[in-house]
Request: fold
Amino acid sequence: MSVLRTKTIEQSLADADEPEYQLKKSLSALDLVVFGVGVVIGAGIFTLTGRAAHEVAGPAIVLSFVVAAFCCALAAMCYAEFASTVPVSGSAYTFSYASMGELIAWIVGWDLLLEMFLGASVVAQGWSAYLGTFLENIGWVLPESIAYGGVIDLPAVLLIVFLGVLISLGIKESMRVNLVLVGIKLFIVLFVIVAGIQFISAANYDPFIPAQQVTEAKSGMTQPLLQALAGIEPSAFGVTGIFAGASLVFFAYIGFDVVATTAEETKNPKRDLPIGIIGSLIICTVLYCAVALVVTGMVSYDELDPAAALANAFEVHGQDWMATVISAGAVAGLTTVVLTLMIGASRVMFAMSRDHLLPPRLAKVHSRYRTPWVITAVVTGVCALVAGFTPVGVLEEMVNIGTLSAFVLVSVGVIVLRRTRPDLPRSFRVPWVPWLPAVSAAVCLYLMLNLPVETWLRFLVWLVIGFGIYFGYSRKRSRVGLEAALRDADRV
Reply:
């Protein structure tokens, strides 16, 4: 059986209509935009802006956000074309199955699970950090052993379990909670921008691009792969710092691709999915750049607190009450990020299980709520364990490399599907094919090369595990492969 067998668009659409696996269609374009903004606005503003400015880019972190947004915009157009053409759960996994074959689809799906499982866990840890700050500001202090960075991060675990139950009750119910929390989050973001402008000092922007500095690294494992291959000394700031910052804050943009995982639950996917994907990306880019400008203008980049930059910037100016409000908003805001990533992970696993590349029992849909409740329980359990017991700060870049690798393959997939299935109706079409998707793939690959060597090694280990599962289990049980074998037997 060929590992490059494809699953036709028609077959994917037919599978989505099977009663056994049918999900409830209840989402509109507004739901999808809110869904996208809900997951994208969060980690970047509340946890990564300060760290990236302080450690690698300085005030030029604004340019890092622009570079990352440019990369995402290219990939977003590729996602929008696929999502409007193949409106089925699974996002890039499903797209790759239709264009480049089963093995590539498995790799993409495996990478997406890395992105979403670890993404939800990382953001849950960030949520716990802001919760601790908020509670301290109102006079409550959690025991160190069960707080952020403790033996077990209990608040992060409890958040994931609560959201797992909510997701099991229904996608629309989850979206209602998401809408309220996104409203609170956007209010806080706008509050930071408006309230922070009065504390901006032009001196903090000088120099806007700090001079490049050689950094001390414990080993060559911590430097970007591109630097290691070229024999360049580890460095930060300068022009290279802008691109290193883009690789880091790229984590802030993960989420617009998660919109595509809800395709089967969207009322009019051919129209609404492109709106949700591209609309949420535009809104978030504008807000990110504005907040980065304000925060680096309020406090010199070398004095920013990498853990909680927004709240710290107001504390520096004696506005402790504002810091408390921001911490409360971050708690609400990061909740939506975790919620959305958990939904995305469950939908990718659902698609892979329906294709029998993972055990099909996992894809069981609840008879009343029409949600994949077994998979949701698995996602909840894994995310809770990772968030509760993984040391802080070791997962972010693993999320980035999983996302970027999926973006590369989706960009290539647009070119392949245009050539193999030019007849397909496409309500959204990427312009300038094959050049724009090729540029998208190249930019994403460049950002991947700016990630540390140790991240690449961990990623390779993750891929080896994935290949082991595919060749040991999935390839023999693939629904597409077994159906093809039956057709061949009938012909004989």
